[in-house]
Design a protein that fits this description.
Number of domains: 2
CATH class of the largest domain: Mainly Beta
Low-confidence stretches: none
Strand content: 35-45%
Number of helices: 2
Largest sheet: 4 strands, antiparallel
Number of strands: 12
Structural class: mainly beta
Shape: globular
Order of helices and strands: HEEEEEEEEEEEHE
Strand order of the largest sheet: 3-4-12-7
CATH architecture of the largest domain: Sandwich
């Protein structure tokens, strides 16, 4: 499980160390899977001039999005099952060293097939909490809805790539 947790963040944080993890009992297919883990990252901040940038969300919406490459589709998109992914990421930073300059704005977008919302807020000095909810509502997306689907994922991907901006005190 520790290696699985590390695999979730390794794309953005190669040197991450998993400090702790826990998960809910997997008694049945109807039970929600709740995975909680903490990790530390040396040199997570990217410096540019006097600003420091931090990726808030190292987790991907879907493991593979190469199906979005084409301009149009002849066949429907299929997903294994409808699902909801809820994420909450708490970022702790030394409040005596850094000040928050910019936090990504809250965002919400949805249609009949997908929905996504995110919020990021400074919960207390030295701590930022980012929450996201992503849902796939349909198992199959008709070819006629492909352009709308591409537009949805493009806007969500742009939102996910926003950074937390810090400055030194």
């Amino acid at each position: 499980m520790k290696e699985f947790c590390k695999a979730l963040v390794v794309d953005d944080f190669v040197g991450a160390t998993i400090d702790r993890y826990s998960f809910s009992p997997l008694d049945s297919l109807d039970t929600e899977l709740i995975l909680k883990f903490g990790f530390s990252v040396p040199n997570a901040l990217r410096k540019q001039a006097d600003l420091y940038f931090l990726t808030i969300d190292p987790f991907k919406l879907l493991s593979d999005m190469t199906w979005l490459v084409k301009e149009s589709r002849r066949y429907p998109l299929t997903f294994h099952y409808p699902r909801i992914t809820k994420k909450q990421v708490t970022i702790r930073y030394p409040k005596d060293v850094f000040a928050v300059r910019n936090v990504p704005e809250n965002f919400s977008k949805g249609d009949d097939n997908f929905s996504y919302s995110s919020s990021t807020q400074a919960s207390q000095p030295g701590q930022i909490v980012s929450s996201e909810v992503f849902s796939i509502k349909s198992r199959e997306i008709a070819p006629g809805k492909y352009a709308q689907t591409r537009k949805f994922f493009e806007s969500v991907q742009n939102k996910i790539s926003e950074k937390l901006v810090l400055t030194k005190r």
